[in-house]
Amino acid sequence: MMMMSVGGNGSNRPAIIQLTAASQTGRSLAYLTFRDQDLVMSFYKVYEYLLNEKATVKDLCNYLQQYSTLYKKLSLFDYILQTSVSSLYS
Prior knowledge:
The protein is mostly helical and 90 residues long. The protein contains four helices and two strands. It has one domain. The chain has helices at residues 12-25, 37-53, 57-70, 76-82, and strands at residues 2-5, 29-32. It has a two-stranded parallel ribbon with strand order 1-2. InterPro entries: Poly_GlycHdrlase (IPR007724).
């Protein structure tokens, strides 16, 4: 099990990086949020969306790469929720 603890603002990127690493290695992820219920709920929403989109590790890396160069006004979670996996490659 991979564990990471993050709290406060700016926690979106580490969550996705840890999800990518856990997915690549086939390990479970325990993500500690220090009782930040907003982060818990938003991460779960993104996780469910990614499952429904059948996102791969490659897709997660593409989300991170495109977000870092294009979408500074949205949070990473909002960017993912507004961007389908198929649009990453068009």
